[in-house]
Amino acid sequence: MIDLDPDTILTRYNVKLEREMTPEDMAAELYPDDEVLRPIIEAVFEGNEDEVVETIQDALEAEKDPLSLIDDALMVGMDIVSKLYDDGDLYLPDVIISAHAMKEGIEYCKERGSGQHEFKGKVVSYVAEGDMHDIGKKIVTVLLMANGYDVIDLGRDVPVSEVISAVKREDPIMITGTALMTTTMYSFMEVNDRLLENGIMIPFVCGGGAVKQDFVSRFELGVYCEDAADVSKIAWDILNGATIEDLRGKYHRH
Ligand code: B12
């Protein structure tokens, strides 16, 4: 018989087995009273892209500013989804569906607004050269987007030179790299060296099945993180002045 620790299972899948309220009821308690914003927030929570656009149209008719709807409604909806996910009351696919609805809404608002929406910061995300495994990277990018970051998603099997060009062009606050194979993760070292050659000293946060802390600690810019949910916390720490050493101190296991 396999000796399973139930606590491990609950943590790993991030879902509670028993709950007294449905996620919808929990979300309803967090919705604001504003009768124009609330329907947009609910549509994001439900992950209904068409309804997100329709409710934004209603808000625009009620003279709301399109760009302000990004922070005041779309992000609020996503914050509720993130909170319930962090508490183990929603599944990851729920987060992804809501993030898509939010993204649709952001595009719609940006097309109709004048000026620029302010994201918290920009992050370049990619999967190592030669590696087709991109499910983890998708989770990382969705969680960053959900927390208000502008994600430049380079996709999978990304050559080192492309990562360096993107970083030079986009000037992000950090990079996230994913590798699922022991053969592909070595390209992280090359990225690290090329960044240093170019005088770029931003945190290079690495994760994915094959990657281990000992390996990432071997290159100067590397920060290891196992849990995708921590990437937005790391980004926030960077915005608040955390150095690579600080991040290693906080997120590495000792
Ligand atoms: C699905 C899968 C595939 C799919 C990939 C589909 C896709 N679009 O991603 C397909 C079928 C294409 C595939 C192909 C291959 N695969 Co494959 N595949 C897997 C499998 C079963 C699951 C991987 C996965 O998606 N896990 C779920 C995701 C969510 O996990 P994750 O990426 O690690 O991400 C999590 C964390 O690591 C973290 N995370 C991820 N990135 C980051 C980044 C940061 C910054 C942070 C903080 C966190 C973080 O967040 C996520 C959530 O917790 C694994 C076996 C396994 N059980 O792991 C083998 C596995 C990864 N594959 C393997 C191999 C060998 C291959 C092939 C070479 C097989 C072949 N002979 O053709 C090819 C390689 C193709 C290529 N060049 O990449 C090996 C790798 C062995 C190794 N260590 O090198 C594995 C381990 C299977 C095995 N046991 O042999 N594969």
Describe what this molecule looks like in 3D:
- A five-stranded parallel β-sheet has the order 2-1-3-4-5, sandwiched between helices.
- 54% of the residues lie in helices and 9% in strands.
- The protein is of the alpha/beta class.
- Helix 3 packs across helix 6, helix 4 packs parallel to helix 6 and helix 8 crosses helix 9.
- It starts with 5 loop residues before the first helix and ends with a helix.
- It contains twelve helices and five strands.
- It has two domains: 92 residues, Orthogonal Bundle (Methyltransferase, Methionine Synthase (B12-binding Domains), Chain A, domain 1); 130 residues, Cobalamin-binding domain (Rossmann fold), CATH 3.40.50.
- The chain is globular and about 55 Å long.
- The chain binds cobalamin.
- Cobalamin (B12) binds next to helix 7, strand 3 and strand 4.
- The site of cobalamin has 26 residues, from helix 7, strand 3 and strand 4.
Quickly count the domains. Answer: 2
Architecture of the largest domain, CATH level 2? 3-Layer(aba) Sandwich
Number of helices, where a helix is a run of at least 4 consecutive DSSP H or I residues: 12
Number of strand elements: 5
Q: Looking across the biggest beta sheet, what order are the strands in?
A: 2-1-3-4-5
Unreliable residue runs: none
Instruction: Give a quick account of the main beta sheet: strands, pairing sense, barrel closure.
Output: 5 strands, parallel
CATH fold annotation of the largest domain: Rossmann fold
Distance between the termini: 32 Å
Classify the beta-strand content into a percent band.
5-15%
Give the radius of gyration: 19 Å
Helix-strand category: alpha/beta
Tell me the name of the CATH homologous superfamily of the largest domain.
Cobalamin-binding domain
* Average pLDDT reading: 90
CATH class of the largest domain: Alpha Beta
Measured as a percent range, the helix fraction is 40-55%
Bound molecules: cobalamin
- Could you say which overall geometry the principal axes of the C-alpha atoms support? globular
Succession of helices and strands: HHHHHHEHEHEHEHEHH
